[in-house]
Specification:
The protein is about 20% helix and about 30% strand. The protein has a single domain (about 5-105, about 155-195), classed as Rossmann fold (3-Layer(aba) Sandwich), CATH 3.40.50. The protein has helices at about 15-30, 55-65, 160-170, and strands at about 5-10, 35-45, 45-50, 50-55, 70-75, 90-100, 140-145, 150-155, 175-180, 190-195. It is built from three helices and ten strands; from the N terminus they run βαβββαββββαββ. It is globular, with a radius of gyration of 18 Å. The two termini are about 15 Å apart. The strands form three sheets. The chain has a six-stranded mixed sheet. It has about 200 residues and is α/β, with parallel strands linked by helices. A hairpin with a 5-residue loop joins β7 (about 140-145) and β8 (about 150-155).
């Protein structure tokens, strides 16, 4: 197996028993192929077991304590949800992990258009990156009316979510490994594996 700049591991809808098995296989067979400056993205979510909401993202982060947890991205998904005890859970979490502190990451390909740039008082250019707004750690697209009023929130679909992870974490001619993910239609060269 070749080495990979980016590994995206989908553990959504997995209970802790399945997570343990899959992470054990990952650590033994896949981890050595992630480049030293590479990024591991883990898609996961909370799940309900015996009427208790289990925080799988935090469980996985603890299990992957040999990595550096850089952030947890939240991706709203209004079509699928997990019934919670009080509120329904409509999000997928993405753990952003690196092997060490010297890693490759470029936010520019996933920046979004500014909605305040031409409307804000004083037109303070220093507040606006020329390539767009920082996407932050809540990935939800917005539409606006051109006058800085948000008119619609649009969720990312599965392919768009995976593509965002890929775009900001690969160098030119990088290799990507998708573990347990659905097939996506993208221009990138991708290796798929099931665990």
């Amino acid at each position: 197996m070749k080495s990979f700049q980016t590994v995206i591991f989908d553990l959504t809808n997995s209970d802790t028993k399945k997570i343990d098995i899959k992470l054990n296989i990952f650590n033994k067979k896949i981890l050595k192929y992630l480049k030293e400056d590479g990024i591991l993205w883990v898609l996961c979510n909370f799940y309900k077991s015996k009427n208790v909401l289990v925080p799988a993202p935090f469980y996985i982060a603890e299990k992957l304590n040999n990595f550096f947890l850089k952030n947890i991205i939240v991706v709203p998904n209004f079509q699928e949800h997990i019934d919670g005890n009080i509120f329904n859970n409509y999000i997928t979490n993405i753990l952003f992990l690196t092997k060490n502190n010297d890693f490759y990451f470029n936010k520019d390909p996933i920046r979004e258009k500014h909605i305040w740039k031409n409307v804000e008082w004083g037109k303070r250019k220093k507040n606006y990156h020329p390539k767009g707004k920082d996407p932050g750690n809540v990935w939800l697209k917005t539409d606006d009316d051109g006058k800085a009023n948000i008119t619609n929130h649009r969720q990312l679909n599965y392919t768009e979510t995976i593509e965002r992870c890929i775009k900001c974490s690969i160098k030119k001619e990088s290799s990507i490994l998708l573990l347990n993910t659905k097939k996506i239609n993208t221009k990138q060269k991708i290796t798929y594996e099931k665990i």
